[in-house]
Amino acid sequence: MPVRHTRAKGEPRFPDGPKADPAGSHFERRIRSFQPRRSRVTAGQADALQRLWPAWGFDIDGSRRLDLAEFFGNGNPVVLEIGFGMGEATAAMAAADPATNILAVDVHTPGQGNLLNLADQRGLTNVRVGNGDAIILLREMLAPGSLGGLRVYFPDPWPKKRHHKRRLIQPEFLTLAATRLAPGAVLHCATDWEPYAEQMLEVLTAHPGFENTQADGGFAPRPGFRPLTRFEGQGLEKGHVVNDLLFRRVRQDEQAEDRA
């Protein structure tokens, strides 16, 4: 009968894997748009974390600037995905577009392990998995203009009014994101919470760094490259309306022309 290892107090769950709080107290304590979720890690997910994290994973600790070309081993454009859940859609998009690198960030350990496992099973080399706060990643670890796109699919809607300040898509976030997106790069958001969709449309439309790709200034049809996720399918079965928003990073000269 195998002997079950019992971790000592303070011993990390995965010694060579993602840390519980990678940035620690090095940065200001602010209102966060996410809550770390601790749930059961399957044997396959645990195995993937142990084997693949040192090569394909990284902790968002804010201690260094990432060289994305070195990180991925090529100069292909990099799309940042914030909040990938269990990673099925991320893996599908990576497989369908191998010429685009995906920097996928989440705080959910089972999801991190699952995405690594999917990437390994499908032979994907264009996925890297980040653990921690995407704001710290954008602000401290990515160079200006280094991203070819940004995806935020089904972020926590924080439905209660007193929690709306926790929503990710806010003017301050958009200002930071705009500095890291290359001119012409697309910010793609999707949500099944209609009040949040309306807020997203309002703040994106008002932000000078972005313009709507839709001529009518409204929501976009779901593009073919975004897979229908299991979570999304469940929402549709319940009668939820899913809205996509695709906004393009405006070039500096275009902003100047608009002000003229």
Automatic annotation (TrEMBL):
Region of interest (Disordered), residue spans: 1-25
Xref: Pfam families: Methyltransf_4 (PF02390)
Top class in the EC scheme: transferase
Organism, scientific name: Streptomyces fungicidicus
Family from the record: Belongs to the class I-like SAM-binding methyltransferase superfamily. TrmB family.
Swiss-Prot/TrEMBL keywords: Methyltransferase, S-adenosyl-L-methionine, Transferase, tRNA processing
Protein's pathway: tRNA modification; N(7)-methylguanine-tRNA biosynthesis
Residues binding S-adenosyl-L-methionine: E81, D106, D133, D156
PANTHER family with a match to the protein in the record: 3-DEOXY-D-MANNO-OCTULOSONIC-ACID TRANSFERASE/TRNA GUANINE-N 7 - -METHYLTRANSFERASE, PENTACOTRIPEPTIDE-REPEAT REGION OF PRORP DOMAIN-CONTAINING PROTEIN
Function: Catalyzes the formation of N(7)-methylguanine at position 46 (m7G46) in tRNA.
Ranges annotated as biased composition (Basic and acidic residues): 8-19
InterPro entries per record: SAM-dependent_MTases_sf, tRNA_(Gua-N-7)_MeTrfase_Trmb, tRNA_methyltr_TrmB_bact
A molecular function GO annotation: tRNA (guanine(46)-N7)-methyltransferase activity
Coiled-coil region: none
Protein name: tRNA (guanine-N(7)-)-methyltransferase
One Gene Ontology cellular component: tRNA methyltransferase complex
Residues holding substrate: K160, D192, T229, R230, F231, E232
Its EC number(s): 2.1.1.33
Catalysed transformations (reactions): guanosine(46) in tRNA + S-adenosyl-L-methionine = N(7)-methylguanosine(46) in tRNA + S-adenosyl-L-homocysteine
